[in-house]
Amino acid sequence: MKVTRGQIITRGLSNCCPNCGGHSLFKAGTLFELNSGCPDCGLKFEKDDGFYLGAMSLNYGVTVVACLIPVALLWYAGVLSGRWAAGLAIGGSIIVPALLYRSSRSWQLMLYYYFFPQHLPLNRRALSANEDENV
Question: CB 3.0 to 4.6 Å from 96: which of 40, 63, 68, 121, for a disulfide?
Answer without folding.
Answer: 63
